[in-house]
Design brief:
Radius of gyration: 34 Å
Number of strands: 12
Protein name: histidine kinase
EC number: 2.7.13.3
Catalytic activity: ATP + protein L-histidine = ADP + protein N-phospho-L-histidine
Organism: Magnetospirillum sulfuroxidans
Largest sheet: 5 strands, antiparallel
Distance between the termini: 45 Å
Helix content: 40-55%
Strand content: 15-25%
Strand order of the largest sheet: 2-1-5-4-3
InterPro entries: PAS-like_dom_sf (IPR035965), Sig_transdc_His_kin_sub2_dim/P (IPR011495), Sig_transdc_His_kinase_HWE (IPR011102)
Length: 316
Amino acid sequence: MIKQTQRLRGGRLNFAEIAGLAAVVARNDGRLSFVSDAARRLLGRQGRAPQSWNDSILSIADAGALAALCRRVRQGGQDETQVVTVPGDGRRLEARLHALAGGKNEVLVLFADITQQIRLNADLLRLRADNQAWAAELQHRVRNVLHVLSAMMYLEGAPGGGDDAAFDLVRGRILAMAQAHDTLEVRDGIAMVDLVACIRSLHALVCSGLGLEPNVLSLRLELDDVPLAPSIDVAVPIALIVYEVFSAAAKAAADGVECEIDVSIRRLNERVRLSISGLCIARDCLNLRLVEALARQLRAQFASDLCGRMTLDFSP
C-alpha cells in the first residue's frame, strides 16, 4: 500500500478515495496537502476538509503531537503510530504515520476509528477478571467440600462407629485431594497447583496422621530451577500417588523402620519426571493397583521396582 501511495502522490493520490481510507498527507509545517473524503468526514469541522492539524477537530495537544511526530517520522524514516482522542464524543483514533520517499518533507497518515476495539478489549479484560474470580471461588468451594467429607469420615470412623482402618484410608485420600486444592492459584481462569508445596503438605499430613515427627520420616526434595505448577486435573492424581507412597513409608517408620524419602522433579522437554526413592515399593506396603490406575488416568509412564524407586513421567 505504501509503495502504491509513493507512486500516486502529487495530485494523483486517489487510492484512498477508491478504498475509502481516512488518509491525509501532512507537511513538516503542519499543513495538509491531501485529505481523502473519509478523512474529511472524520477530522473536518462542519464537513469541510481541514487545511492543517490545527484546523481539524483534534485537540490542540493532539494536533501538536501529530505535527511533531510527522517531523520525526520524516527525518528518521521510521513508521510510527499515535492514538488520539476526538473531543466531545471521546472516540479514539489510531494514526499510522509513514514517510513518503521523495515526498518533499511529506508524511502519509492513515486514520482508523478504534473506539469499538478498545471497548471490546475492555470487555474482554472485565470478562477475564470475572472468570478468574469465578474459577477461584469454585476451587475454594471444592476444597471446603473435601474438608467436610474428611470430617464426616472421621466422625463415622470414631471408636464404635465401624472399621476405623478402612475409614482412615478413605479419609486420608480425601485429605490428599484437599491438599492439592489448598496449594492452588487461578491463572487466566485455570487452576494451577504449586506441586512442591503440595508434596510438602502431603508429607506433613501423613506424619501428623500417624503421630510421627517429621525427622522420623525425613523428606528430601531435588528440583529444577523452574517451579512446576500443573493444572488441578493433573495435580490431584499426582497428589494421590504421592500420598500412597508417603503413607506406605510412614507406616514402615511407625513400625521402627528408618525411612528417608528422596523426591526428584525434573523437566524432560514437554514432560516432567517425578522420581521417588527410599522405601520398599512392594505389593504388601503400597497399593500399586491404585497407583497404576491413577497413572493411566494421567496418561503417564509409570515404573517401579522392589529396590525402592518409582518414576512417573507426565505432561503438566
